[in-house]
């Protein structure tokens, strides 16, 4: 039973990280440094929960999150690609904007700056045991299924399609790409919008799993996803593996915290500490897209 | 790429003002009334003015921190965590000193502790960058996360002072003089000597970078040409030095937070100061005078947003800060300082 609960927790915890890191891979392969994954997660969660509350439809929630992420990606492109502003600064600014913007919008929409009303849960599905309920909750969240499918699709997109090769060309050698007639800024914009949509689906997972939007609910996951992008050497599948590893660590945190045997602070610090160690240990081996900036 | 700078600056300012008015309007208030309230709460009274400078004080320190690292082309996103480390170190050392320690001894001890705390964290990121090639943006982000988790636990647990959810008070000798003690008009405000210390530190930073060998090495590291190699500079040592100095400046924000205003450390003290420091450094163009002016501008905004708190949610301020950050990045596109 413990194993089932843990499996459910890994699925729920890894999905936002996998989707966010996949969004990061898509953006950075086009040569744009992507630190705004935290913002995408928050905006995706916010869009999913507000639309879910308004319509009661999970499909609408997921679509709204993807749309919000694509729009945020377009905004990112407007500044970082078309205006040539530093992508690092735009990323930091969008993170600030998303934290404060969603909190302010929460206040305006629902009269509380800390959390939204809860989404209706499918009470009829409640099973007999906690373990089965946890697993079923995880498996009936669509984003849990969407994540691995998108990872596969993104890997195919980047390696087998014209758009994917153009994205990689923009990230490796934009001047040569431009000489070949690739519209670099447009391709980068497309990659950023796609990346934003995918990463925001990770936010939808957060919101649907918690059945509510809570201020700053991304809680640093976007930064851990940035690390997964680098650890996965900018490849969709490898980044997803690292993201799942970090997600499993968070799930372990939840399981061990309830057992009370290990101090919570150690568990909370663990993802950051191990990610730092992993990134430092593998720094020499990774090669970023040549024109990343 | 050259662009008509004046035009872009005007466009950026217009964008920020629009963002501000839009967020005010969305929050359901009249922009004119909000601006009047903001003015009354800041420049309209000597107390409001002093409070604005108090809010600007930690930003002087973190703005200087980010700017110094940028001269070596290092992006110190970790001023946030380095500030938390300085706050922790200053509070622990300040509380551990014997009760009767004179100011002349206690204040330097605490300042040294704050600087060391920040420098340790910044230096670690510098070492990782110089020795292993770890991207400093990423390592400092992880260190920010670690520090935030760590101090939350310490202040709520081991360092907790009985029923209070903060650390023990630092000794009286470690407190910096408050402006209200010297000037009656500033009484009750949080303005203290850390503001002057911050201005001195900014001037010293400018002098160090432009006039000393150490500063030359840091600038050479940041220049894209072969200057660093031509000067025979050790990249590891210089990277560690730049990041440690940057971290020390960020840590010294504790001089305002712990030694000036609070007298102890608590959860959330110094949160956001590091990220805002990035905006201050960029808006100030990396120059001491510019950073000081940018810090004061953000201090006025912060105090002003408190003055209108009843009408506009305080989050609107962060929206304005983010808009400013993007506007500055757009204006600075192509310039080395914004990279």
Beta content of chain B: under 5%
Measured on Cα atoms, how large is the radius of gyration of chain A?
A: 19 Å
User: Which structural class should the secondary elements of chain B be placed in?
Assistant: mainly alpha
Helix/sheet category of chain A: mainly alpha
- Report the radius of gyration of chain B as a whole number of Å: 20 Å
> What is the succession of H and E elements of chain A?
HHHHHHHHHHHH
- Any low-confidence stretches of chain B, pLDDT <50, length ≥5? none
Q: State the low-pLDDT regions of chain A, or none.
A: none
Explain the overall architecture.
Chain A is an all-alpha fold and 293 residues long. Chain A has a single domain, classed as ABC transporter involved in vitamin B12 uptake, BtuC. Chain A is built from twelve helices and no strands. The longest helix of chain A is centred in the first third of the chain and has 28 residues, at 2-29. The radius of gyration of chain A is 19 Å and the shape is globular. Chain B is mainly alpha-helical and 339 residues long. Chain B has one domain. Helices cover 70% and strands 0% of the residues of chain B. Chain B has 15 helices and no strands. In chain B, helix 4 packs antiparallel against helix 5 (103-132). The model of chain B has no long low-confidence stretch (mean pLDDT 87). Classes of the chains: A mainly alpha (293), B mainly alpha (339).
List the helices and strands and how they pair.
The complex is a heterodimer of chains A (293) and B (339).
Chain A: H1 2-29, H2 37-55, H3 58-82, H4 87-110, H5 130-139, H6 142-160, H7 162-172, H8 174-179, H9 184-210, H10 221-231, H11 236-259, H12 264-282
Helix pairs in contact in A: 1-2, 1-5, 1-6, 1-9, 1-10, 1-11, 2-3, 2-4, 2-9, 2-10, 3-4, 3-9, 6-7, 6-9, 7-9, 10-11, 10-12, 11-12
Chain B: H1 5-26, H2 31-41, H3 46-71, H4 79-96, H5 103-132, H6 136-156, H7 179-182, H8 194-211, H9 213-222, H10 227-230, H11 235-251, H12 254-262, H13 273-283, H14 288-307, H15 315-331
Helix pairs in contact in B: 1-15, 2-14, 3-8, 3-11, 3-13, 3-14, 4-5, 4-6, 4-11, 4-12, 4-13, 5-6, 5-11, 8-9, 8-14, 9-11, 13-14, 13-15
């Amino acid at each position: 039973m413990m194993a089932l609960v843990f499996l459910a927790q890994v699925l729920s915890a890894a999905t936002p990280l996998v989707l966010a890191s996949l969004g990061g891979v898509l953006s950075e392969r086009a040569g744009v440094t992507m630190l705004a994954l935290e913002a995408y997660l928050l905006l995706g969660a916010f869009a999913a929960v507000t639309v879910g509350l308004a319509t009661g439809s999970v499909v609408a929630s997921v679509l709204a999150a993807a749309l919000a992420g694509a729009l945020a990606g377009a905004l990112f492109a407007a500044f970082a690609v078309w205006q040539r502003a530093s992508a690092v600064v735009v990323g930091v600014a969008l993170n600030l904007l998303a934290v404060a913007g969603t909190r302010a919008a929460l206040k305006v929409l629902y009269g509380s700056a800390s959390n939204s009303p809860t989404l209706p849960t499918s009470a009829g599905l409640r099973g007999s045991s906690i373990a089965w309920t946890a697993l079923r909750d995880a498996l009936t969240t669509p984003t849990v299924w969407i994540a691995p499918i998108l990872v596969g699709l993104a890997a195919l997109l980047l390696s087998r399609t014209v758009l994917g090769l153009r994205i990689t060309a923009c990230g490796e050698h934009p001047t040569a790409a431009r000489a070949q007639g690739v519209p670099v800024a447009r391709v980068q914009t497309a990659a950023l919008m796609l990346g934003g949509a995918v990463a925001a689906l990770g936010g939808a997972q957060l919101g649907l799993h918690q059945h509510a939007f809570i201020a700053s609910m991304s809680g640093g996951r976007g930064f851990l996803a940035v690390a997964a992008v680098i650890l996965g050497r900018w490849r969709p599948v490898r980044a997803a593996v690292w993201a799942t590893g970090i997600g499993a660590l968070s799930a372990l945190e939840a399981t061990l915290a309830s057992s009370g045997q290990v101090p919570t602070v150690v568990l909370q610090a663990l993802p950051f500490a191990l990610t730092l160690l992993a990134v430092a240990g593998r720094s020499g081996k990774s090669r970023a897209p040549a024109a990343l900036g | 790429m050259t662009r008509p700078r004046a035009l872009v600056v005007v466009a950026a300012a217009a964008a920020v003002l629009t963002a501000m008015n839009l967020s005010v309007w969305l929050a359901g208030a009249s922009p004119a009334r909000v601006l009047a309230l903001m003015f009354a709460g800041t420049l309209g009274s000597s107390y409001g003015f002093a409070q604005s400078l108090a809010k600007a004080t930690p930003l002087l320190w973190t703005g200087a921190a980010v700017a110094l690292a940028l001269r070596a082309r290092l992006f110190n996103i970790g001023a946030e965590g380095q500030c938390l480390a300085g706050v922790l170190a200053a509070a622990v050392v300040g509380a551990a000193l014997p009760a009767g320690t004179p100011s002349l001894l206690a204040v330097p001890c605490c300042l040294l502790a704050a600087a060391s705390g920040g420098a340790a964290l910044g230096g670690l990121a510098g070492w990782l960058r110089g020795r292993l090639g770890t991207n400093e943006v990423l390592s400092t982000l992880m260190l920010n996360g670690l520090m935030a988790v760590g101090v939350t636990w310490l202040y709520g647990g081991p360092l907790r002072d009985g029923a209070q959810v903060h650390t023990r008070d630092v000794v009286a000798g470690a407190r910096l003089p408050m402006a209200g003690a010297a000037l009656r008009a500033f009484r009750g405000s949080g303005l203290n000597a850390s503001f002057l210390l911050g201005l001195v530190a900014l001037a010293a930073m400018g002098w160090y970078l432009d006039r000393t060998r150490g500063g030359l090495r840091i600038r050479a590291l940041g220049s894209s040409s072969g200057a660093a190699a031509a000067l025979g500079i050790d990249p590891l040592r210089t990277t560690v030095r730049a990041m440690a100095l940057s971290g020390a400046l960020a840590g010294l924000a504790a001089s305002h937070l712990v030694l000036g205003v609070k007298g102890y450390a608590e959860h959330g003290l110094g949160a956001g100061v590091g990220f805002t420091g990035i905006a201050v450094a960029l808006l100030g163009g990396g120059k001491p005078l510019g950073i000081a002016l940018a810090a004061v501008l953000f201090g006025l905004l912060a105090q002003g947003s408190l003055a209108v708190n009843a009408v506009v949610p305080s989050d609107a301020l962060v929206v304005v800060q983010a808009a400013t950050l993007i506007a500055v990045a757009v204006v600075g596109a192509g310039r080395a300082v914004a990279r």
